[in-house]
Design goal:
Blueprint (H helix, E strand, L loop, with lengths): L1 H6 L4 E3 L4 E2 L2 E2 L4 H11 L5 E3 L12 H11 L10 H13 L5 H17 L19 H14 L1 E5 L12 E5 L6 H5 L19 H8 L4 E5 L10 E7 L18 H12 L4 E6 L15 E4 L8 H7 L53 E6 L5 E6 L5 E2 L6 E5 L2 E2 L4 E7 L2 E9 L9 E5 L4 E3 L2 E2 L3 E6 L9 E4 L1 E4 L5 E3 L2 E4 L7 E4 L6 E8 L3 E11 L3 E7 L3 E7 L4 E14 L2 E9 L4 E12 L3 H4 L2 E7 L6 E8 L3 E8 L5 E10 L2 E8 L7 E8 L4 E8 L1
Parallel strand pairs: 1-4, 6-7, 6-8, 8-9, 9-10, 22-27
Antiparallel strand pairs: 2-3, 5-10, 11-12, 12-17, 13-19, 14-15, 14-18, 16-17, 18-21, 19-20, 23-33, 24-27, 25-26, 27-32, 28-31, 28-33, 29-30, 29-32, 34-35, 35-38, 36-37, 36-39, 39-40
Length: 687
């Protein structure tokens, strides 16, 4: 592990962007110097990440001082290096950074250069370039894939796949995405999807290994014919590096869960292959799988996965970390007082389970339904004898026995290895659920399900994400899915975390329940050094914009307000940045009015012509009463291209003429008319 690398003489270690107990690691003297250099005996040099020191403090001089004194030896300064040099010289001259600290840093760097003989041979050997990506290299890469993938669990006799006579469906978009399976730092910094380099994706690897078996690829799992087994590739869809991959939830995407459930409920045995750079909460999906494989980011040689799936090689990989049951367990480590992961450190099946070698029937996985009305319990093989009664089982909720909660127990109609428990009282969101069994009355041939105590049941109520009640507050960091942002400690009233490091196009998604219909005033708590616009969308059908200005500080917070009419019900709310460099603490929803007058008597008969348009666009519509409004041109992603009008509308017919910029790309745009209550859209096409 980590200490083994230090003991082996590793020459450099990079500080991470993240924080520990609210303090940025680039300025953390205790971890970098006291622990890493002194206690662990690291003799190499510590290098900063790209602009990592800049994050330590808003004042650049102070950030440099804290970073160097904390133990950073080499600083990655992508820009303003002249300012950095000037500040560092000043800090040394003023005694704020000691000469001894500079000498220590330089000594560590020079030592590594000497060990690498860089003064005598500063350049790489160009003759080796032709061997990069050679067949020999790819053989090693496939070996690495085979030996690192981990068979987390499997039911009896599901694997290996057969090379003769099977119809094998491969499902999931990740199966045919070479770029996604390579991850970040591939060709480009963040990596990208698609055929970005030479290699074999997972689908092609399976096709190459299938022999006389038939392989059918269906990204969404649709297929009308018979299927013997489905290999379903799930996981992290977009490659990422560093902060772009930061998430506060490691829950598997709902689309993956639904795909797996749909295939299993069609009676198809399922083998899940997880592509990810970290452990993902498998949760609701796991009982609907017959085998679960962690493939990590296999890189260019997806055929290495197929070689294990078809049994040319036995699984050998083991976990280098503990795998959490749910987000409430994160972080989890060996030695924790209550150590009960889904899969333990160094777990990994070393052979494919079979009924012939099994000694007993085992519990495989359990989860509630999303409405909490049922529990599904998957076992390691098909049930041939089912004599259990309700009293043989015990459900605990938050550690307390819930008597008579089980209404009925039955075999799932789609899979004889799954039991379905119908409940008299629904499980509620975030309740901890376990299932115990007295044993002896359930069997698969001669394999008996013995007693089990407090078997973990994943609580999938609400889809595994928090549902925020509105009216009320939605903390910005409580998203269930995001793209591109990071979280950091917040100094605003109430503390906690805020969302930051935002760039245009980044987004967060939240589940919200509107408990009262009406007009809502939405207060967004924002900070930053520049103005811009934040787009709030609800189920992609309703949206409003928050216009904000500079607050002159990353932690100088101000309220910025917009309004929107929302009907009662459940929504997915998406907050999408239209501009760069600002922070968000929370969204506060207050019911301003329950009147629907403006909702039903607004802007009507919108016409835009000519359409397609080339240079001048005429927009006409009727308004039932005079009101303030904005007219904007937006692109299909929701990004504002130009504000066309801001002012008051007349009662009755309104007509506007707008020039069209010849430099705008041709294609689809939308004219948005926004009043106090609602947004109205008209599609136009620019030639």
């Amino acid at each position: 592990g980590y200490t083994d690398a230090i003991d082996a003489g590793v020459g450099s270690i990079m500080a991470s962007y993240n924080s520990w107990n609210g303090e940025k690691l680039h300025g953390h003297e205790y971890l970098l110097t006291d622990v890493l250099k002194n206690e662990l005996g690291f003799e190499g040099f510590i290098i900063s990440d790209w602009k990592g020191v800049d994050q330590v403090d808003e004042n650049y001089r102070t950030a440099i001082k804290r970073g160097i004194n904390a133990g950073i030896d080499m600083v990655m300064v992508p820009d303003r290096y002249e300012v950095f040099i000037s500040h560092l010289i000043s800090l040394v001259e003023d005694g704020e950074v000691s000469g001894d600290r500079i000498d220590d840093a330089v000594r560590r760097i020079l030592k590594q250069k000497l060990l690498l003989n860089l003064f005598e041979e500063p350049f790489a050997d160009p003759s080796l370039a032709s061997s990069v990506g050679s067949p020999a290299h790819r053989d090693v890469a496939r070996q690495a894939v085979r030996e690192s993938m981990v068979l987390l669990n499997a039911k009896n006799d599901v694997l290996p796949l057969q090379k003769d006579g099977q119809t094998i469906m491969v499902a999931g978009t990740l199966a045919a995405d070479l770029g996604a399976q390579c991850g970040g730092w591939t060709i480009t910094w963040q990596g990208s999807n698609g055929d970005i380099t030479t290699g074999t994706d997972i689908l092609t690897g399976i096709e190459n290994m299938a022999g006389n078996s038939e392989v059918i690829y269906s990204p969404n799992g649709d297929h009308n014919g018979p299927v013997d087994v489905a290999v379903v590739v799930v996981g992290e869809k977009t490659p990422y590096a560093e902060g772009a991959g930061d998430r506060t939830s490691l829950n598997l995407e709902e689309a993956d869960i639904n795909l797996m459930k749909r295939l299993k409920e069609a009676g198809i045995p399922t083998v899940a292959v997880l592509v990810s750079g970290r452990p993902i909460v498998l949760g609701e999906m796991l009982p609907y799988t017959d085998a679960m494989i962690a493939a990590w980011y296999p890189g260019t040689e997806g055929e290495g996965i197929a070689e294990v799936l078809f049994g040319d090689y036995q699984p050998t990989g083991q976990l280098t970390h503990s795998w959490p049951r749910e987000m409430a367990q994160v972080p989890i480590n060996v030695g924790d007082e209550d150590y009960s992961p889904l899969f333990e450190y160094r777990h990994g099946l070393q052979a494919f389970p079979s009924a012939a070698s099994a000694e007993k029937l085992l519990p495989f996985a359990a989860a509630t339904s999303q409405d909490g009305s049922t529990i599904v319990l998957a076992l390691s093989d098909n049930i041939t004898a089912m004599n259990a009664v309700n009293s043989d089982f015990e459900v605990r909720i938050d550690g307390v026995v819930s008597p008579d909660v089980i209404s009925t127990i039955s075999l799932a109609g789609f899979d004889e290895s799954i039991l379905v428990f119908s409940l008299n009282t629904a499980i509620r969101q975030q309740e901890a659920v376990t299932l115990s069994y007295s044993g002896g009355n359930i069997a698969s041939s001669d394999l008996i399900l013995e007693g089990m105590n407090d078997f973990f049941v994943y609580n999938a109520v609400g889809g595994g994400a928090i549902t925020h009640l509105i009216p009320g507050r939605v903390e910005a960091e409580d998203f269930f899915e995001m793209n591109g942002i990071q979280t950091e400690p917040c100094t605003d009233v109430g503390g906690g975390l805020n969302v930051g490091y935002i760039e245009g196009g980044d987004w967060m998604k939240y589940r919200v329940q509107i408990t009262q219909p009406g007009q809502y005033q939405v207060v967004s708590r924002i900070s930053g050094y520049a103005g811009g616009t934040l787009l709030l969308k609800f189920d992609d059908a309703l949206q409003t914009e928050v216009d904000y200005t500079s607050t002159n500080g990353w932690q100088n917070w101000r309220d910025f307000t917009t309004s929107i009419y929302l009907e009662e019900g459940f929504y997915t709310m998406q907050a999408q940045a239209q501009s760069d460099a600002f922070n968000i603490n929370y969204f506060d929803f207050a019911l301003a009015s329950t009147s629907t007058r403006d909702q039903h008597s607004g802007i009507q008969d919108i016409k835009a012509y000519p359409n397609p348009v080339e240079d001048v666009l005429v927009l006409e519509f009727s308004s039932t009463h005079s009101r303030e409004a904005q007219i904007r041109l937006i692109d299909p992603s929701g990004k504002r291209v130009q504000e066309l009008y801001r002012g008051r509308l007349n009662t009755g017919r309104n007509s506007f003429t707008f020039p069209i910029n010849a430099n705008w790309p041709g294609g689809v745009y939308f004219i948005e008319v926004k009043d106090e209550v609602k947004r109205y859209f008209e599609k136009v096409v620019k030639k």
